[in-house]
Q: What sequence folds into this?
């Protein structure tokens, strides 16, 4: 009896001890050493898991980002015994450096085994392939800068081979306080380096530090698949494409490159600078414009003066509003400045345009004082002052004389009363009259301008509506004529133009733009060809074209369309699309009917 009890206890203990082992789901990685933001694969063996549809991947955050998930299975037969293996493959990307642990992931009622990996800094990735076929380089115009001084960051990608599925992760500020933004659009051009030809993709960024200290810019990351020719039959045939499919091995080699990490030394504002606003720029100028032909200027009538400040290397929000001094003999009203910002040859050019309304109040000569703007010249590393010289204007008449003339015409009794007022009261009235007349003249001019602009807006709106109606009527008439012509074409086609020759010319244009790898030109040429091939379609689009062509050509057209609208991907190769277009042309030859019409190239519905 005791022996039986002991046996039962031992069996129970063995079963209990084996439970943790049974609950562990095997998991492994393809690499244990990876770079930050560099993808790798985590493979989970679910052969003995019944339900693995609900996998809780939230435990991977925030150390890892899940880029993709796929499944694969295999069957083996050994000595007549059949075994099946099922696996889940997760594509992960580490977001931090150091030694990281992939935590246990719940798979049904079980969990995976934790896996440890080492994540190296992004700068440890290569900056170019060993053959220098692809290179990624970054640089700044200066590594030592002042607070709020613009630094130009340039990133260049050199491509000297065929690539596919390319993507670029732009750099970013990882340490310090700075505004980091792209300047302009991507540039691409060709260059020859040491006898090798490259296509260069250039990106420029503006860095404006906000605090002194160190600012660190992370490397840019480039991912792509380098195209490698697999089976080659010696001739350009369909067999090459058949054997270069995933079923017969990959056509390309995945690559990952990183640019160099850049650190900036940001200095404080120099103690020698005495200006109110800190303005570090490559250049700063100030100038004004106004109508000097009216001189001498009548008293009480407004004068418009436009003052413009232009700077290189400053953001538009760094330029301060102008402050005008009070001047005896005139009143000045400055409107809020109009700011403008543009990129010229990779340099940020900003301007502040201020409209000043000047109203003279007394006759004689009035001097408008000099305007000074202190700034720091980053090229010469010294303080400078931009100056707008003082201007002297001549004013004729006076507001008092004009007001007296108006009062004489208006009311004689008022003049009698005014003659009895003492000198102090006269001065008070004159000041009051100047202010009222100034404001009335100023606002009357503004209201007249607004009314004039309002009438012009109504006229422009009427013209737009009229043109739209005329365009609509013309399109409707053309559509009716087109339908009549199409119905008549079944009876007689003697007067139709040579459609076949036109289509051949358009197809040649498509093949040429494909060989040039010009995605935008290929899209335009495809739409032009489609409009000729399907004249009944009044508004041809890429989606309508995809619906009409055969499946293989539709896939290439869809990929072209996605490349044009996908942010950050500017690489497209038109070799395959050109081959399909060429094959379509060859098939169409010899199959023309007696009416000189190409055989339909679209799907039969």
A:
């Amino acid at each position: 009896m005791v022996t039986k009890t002991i046996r039962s206890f031992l069996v129970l203990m063995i079963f209990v001890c084996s439970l943790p082992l049974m609950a562990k789901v095997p998991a492994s990685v393809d690499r244990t050493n990876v770079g930050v933001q560099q993808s790798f694969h985590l493979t989970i063996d679910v052969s003995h898991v019944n339900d693995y549809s609900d996998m809780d991947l939230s435990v991977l955050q925030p150390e890892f980002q899940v880029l993709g998930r796929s499944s694969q299975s295999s069957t083996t037969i050994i000595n007549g015994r059949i075994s099946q293996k099922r696996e889940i493959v997760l594509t992960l990307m580490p977001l931090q450096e150091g030694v990281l642990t992939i935590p246990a992931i719940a798979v049904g009622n079980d969990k995976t085994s934790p896996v440890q990996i080492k994540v190296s800094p992004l700068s440890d990735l290569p900056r170019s392939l060993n053959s220098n076929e692809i290179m990624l380089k970054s640089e700044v115009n200066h590594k030592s800068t002042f607070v709020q001084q613009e630094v130009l960051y340039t990133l260049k990608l050199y491509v000297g081979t065929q690539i596919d599925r390319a993507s670029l992760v732009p750099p970013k500020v990882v340490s310090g306080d700075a505004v980091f933004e792209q300047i302009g659009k991507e540039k691409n051009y060709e260059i020859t380096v040491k006898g090798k030809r490259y296509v260069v993709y250039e990106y420029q960024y503006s860095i404006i530090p906000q605090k002194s200290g160190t600012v660190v810019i992370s490397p840019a990351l480039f991912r792509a698949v380098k195209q490698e020719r697999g089976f080659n039959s010696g001739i350009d045939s369909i067999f090459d494409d058949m054997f270069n499919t995933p079923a017969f091995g990959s056509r390309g080699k995945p690559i990952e490159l990183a640019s160099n990490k850049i650190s900036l030394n940001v200095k404080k504002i120099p103690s020698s600078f005495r200006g109110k606003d800190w303005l570090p720029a490559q250049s700063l100028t100030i100038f004004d414009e106004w109508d000097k032909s009216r001189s001498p200027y009548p008293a009480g009538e407004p004068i418009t003066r436009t003052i413009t400040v232009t700077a290189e290397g400053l953001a538009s929000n760094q330029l301060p509003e102008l402050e005008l001094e009070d001047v005896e003999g005139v009143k000045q009203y400055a409107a809020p400045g109009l700011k403008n910002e543009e990129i010229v040859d990779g340099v940020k050019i900003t301007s502040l345009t201020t409209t000043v309304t000047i109203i003279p109040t007394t006759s004689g000569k009035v001097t408008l004082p000099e305007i000074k703007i202190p700034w720091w010249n980053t090229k010469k590393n010294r303080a400078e002052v931009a100056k707008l010289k003082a201007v002297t204007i001549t004013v004729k008449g006076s507001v008092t004389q004009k007001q007296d003339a108006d009062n004489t015409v208006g009311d004689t009794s008022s003049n009698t009363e005014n003659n009895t007022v003492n000198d102090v009261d006269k001065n008070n009235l004159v000041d009051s009259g100047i202010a009222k007349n100034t404001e009335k003249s100023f606002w009357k001019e503004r209201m007249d301008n607004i009314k004039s602009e309002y009438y012009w807006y109504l006229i422009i709106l009427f013209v737009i509506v009229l043109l739209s109606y005329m365009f609509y009527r013309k399109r409707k008439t053309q559509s009716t004529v087109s339908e009549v012509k199409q119905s008549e074409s079944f009876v007689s086609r003697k007067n139709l133009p040579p459609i076949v020759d036109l289509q051949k010319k358009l197809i040649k244009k498509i093949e040429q733009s494909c060989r040039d790898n010009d995605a935008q030109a290929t899209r335009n040429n495809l739409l032009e060809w489609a409009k000729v091939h399907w004249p009944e379609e009044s508004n041809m689009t890429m989606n309508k074209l995809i619906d009409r062509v055969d499946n293989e050509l539709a896939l290439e057209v869809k990929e072209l369309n996605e490349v044009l609208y996908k942010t950050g991907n500017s690489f497209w190769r038109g070799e395959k699309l050109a081959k399909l277009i060429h094959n379509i042309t060859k098939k169409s030859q010899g199959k023309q009917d007696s009416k000189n019409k190409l055989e339909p190239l679209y799907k039969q519905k």
Summary: The first helix runs from residue 2 to 23. The domain at 25-120 is CATH 2.60.40 (Immunoglobulin-like).
